[in-house]
Automatic annotation (TrEMBL):
The keyword Metal-binding does not apply. Homodimer. It is found in: Cytoplasm. GO terms for molecular function: carbohydrate derivative binding; glutamine-fructose-6-phosphate transaminase (isomerizing) activity. Its main location: cytoplasm. Residues 40-180, 199-335 form the SIS domain. The active site is at 340 (for fru-6p isomerization activity). Its EC number is 2.6.1.16. It catalyses: D-fructose 6-phosphate + L-glutamine = D-glucosamine 6-phosphate + L-glutamate. This is Glutamine--fructose-6-phosphate aminotransferase [isomerizing]. Keywords: Aminotransferase, Cytoplasm, Glutamine amidotransferase, Repeat, Transferase. Signal peptide: none annotated. GO terms for cellular component: cytoplasm.
Amino acid sequence: SSASKEGYPHFMLKEIHENPIAIKDTISGLLNDIDRVKEIAEEIRNAERIIVTAAGTSYHAGLYFSLLLARRGYTVMPLVASEYHSVRAKKGDIVLAISQSGETLDVKMGIRKFKEEGAKIIALTNVIESDIARESDYKLYMRAGPEIGVAATKTFTSELVSLKFLHSVVERESLDYLEKAHEIVRNVITETEGFAKKIGEELANKNNIYYLGRGLGVPLAMEGALKIKEIAYIHAEAYPAGESKHGPIALIEKGFPVIFINTGELVDELEKNLQEMKARGATTYSINVNERLNFSDNEIVIKSDGRLAEIIIAPIVQLIAYYAAVRRGYDPDKPRNLAKTVTVE
Ligand code: AGP
């Protein structure tokens, strides 16, 4: 049945390994739905402002999309769903609501308010005909398949893929580079799982972790830190790497673990931040696509299509958190205090 672990010790590990198939299904689903995607892309191009509302992991995917649009000159506002009171929408605005479950109450309350204020709503959900999909003007589905683990994994990757796809349609760019994405991610998982396990097990002995990135690496750093908090119960924080010198660096002492996400952009700047951390005794780790960071104590470098960098990095940060949790003796499928779907405010 779909609720079987198929030989994996946990649903979470099974679902991380389902990233490639989720990516494949996401892309073929969107290609089948291309007319609707084009219609949505047109709405985005014509919008005065784009408000992206989502919670937790889905918020990180929303931030990624917001950054993709912002760097092309769009007026875009990533919004933590529960803060919907802080933003007033108006006619001409487009609201993109991202929710794996399609049932998160904070997201639902927000889209109801924004709709009343005159905005059009686009939903991206995994669960077909969920409340959020039904209440929206346009629906997109990520089609990652059912996710049992409370910690979102393959659905995060599917969100990134859906949003990258949508962004390429908005920009009228070719979608060819997505064709091999699932195979690339399958190989990356095979090649990096040992490294992720080693890092995860090292982190299992730590009380604090920083995750740093720049540009599109920031949402990945945030997701990496959230995963560690959720299932390994280690205090992990993410910052844009350049921001770390404005405060967070004060905590660095010998052996403080700092993980750098290097998507291949702003590499020199990131390397400076790494050296600042090392100079204060940090133990540094780097997850790199195409370009290395010099002086990193531990590194993995993946050579691939740079346009897929964030999609490639997603499963690696998931694996790191998984192996940290298992080493600490926790069941990653049943994190304390958390529910798969949050239907309270
Ligand atoms: C992710 O690991 C968490 N379980 C949580 O942050 C989740 O992403 C959030 O509650 C949003 O859920 P949704 O995508 O179903 O709306």
